[in-house]
Amino acid sequence: MKLEIKNICFIPALLFSGVLPAQTVNTGDLYIANGTIMSTIGAMDNKSSGNLFNDGDFFLYSHYNNDGLVTFSTGATTGTTHMRGLFGSQDISGKMPMDWYDAEFFNVKAQPAFHLSNEVSISGTSDFQQGILDDDNFGGLLIFENGAKPINVNDQSHVDGKVQKNGDESFIYPIGDKNKYRFSGISAPEAVLSSFTGKFFYENSNSLYPHTKKSKEISIINNQEYWTLDKTSSNSDVMLTLSWDESSSTPVYILAAPQSDIHIVRWDASKNLWVDEGGVVDSVNKTVTTPVNVSGYNVFTTARVDESLIVLPCNTITVYNAVSPNGDDKNEYFKIDGLSDCSAGNTVEIYNRWGVKVFETTNYGSNGNVFRGYSEGRTTVSKGELLPAGTYFYILNFKNKTAGYPMIKKSGYLYLTN
After folding, report:
1. How many CB atoms lie under 10 A from the CB of residue 50?
2. The organism sits in which domain of life (predicted)?
3. Res 311: pLDDT
4. Which domains does the chain have, with CATH numbers?
5. Which pTM value belongs to this model?
């Protein structure tokens, strides 16, 4: 028989000497209906035989353990689990994962306020009002399902540890470390069955991933912080965004002018080397984003990159970044001078602002093989269509004829007007 809760508060008798109240234990079917409230002052323990459905508001003022089923009704868009600490830190534990629709974290009694050793999946909104959720030291995991999002994240309220994002939407990870909120973000994956896990480290990566081992164009690497992004499950890739904070964790030498030199770099384990993933800087929002999908996963940080070091061995290449295919014989196509002098073979890729490839070719510039503002070749948008005006990003790879520099990569913007 299912027990339906309507505005009930469990307040077990308090023990003497200020000891925490006794547990609330569920061993059967417990349903918190939409529009109703259940509160428990003592620790909540849902046993292996317990089935707890929360479509209403469940207020927990102490620990929450689940060894059974904790979820919400299929198709429901209500049900908030309110973690409201009264006695200190709150354990979120158990042998079986929990599915919550909405979550609220508010605890001013301890920091970190929430010790997550279980897995909790959020399907709605996670409101980080006050208190750090630590799953790094307790072995748990916070998961955001498709459509779920975090709000009100800051230095005093975030996830210290790993956060997993499932689905095909862009996402900002509510992550931090050592009382510093330092988010990362991903673009929307193409595959709905995608899963990416992010984490932030407020520490120097040099001891694990030596900064002396880097590609030529990388000038200096951030020695105070780094992130990890792992593809947990996906058939598609993503662009990565990293944040900075000049007042605390990000070194001033990374943020020095010109900020256009700030890129994202990745530790390539197969090469035992830091490699450049590119960078589009947003000074207003204090972020840098890879211009296209990352070429690999795991360890990332920010760095300063000198692109002149890439093209120095072959300085005759000139890129004209204006394209205006309007028939006036001016800037009718994306023009690159000097390729035949420097290159023994090349590829050109062009992407739109969302990281979608709109043009790709080999031996660019030969026999009229150029970008004229139309989607052509092996692309991910409709072939033969005139693309909308705007800013695009190009990547030029070529085999350099100069000895000692066998492969050169140059990237930048081009501006398409119709």
Report:
1. 20
2. Bacteria
3. 46
4. 1-161 (no CATH), 183-306 (2.60.40), 310-416 (2.60.40)
5. 0.79
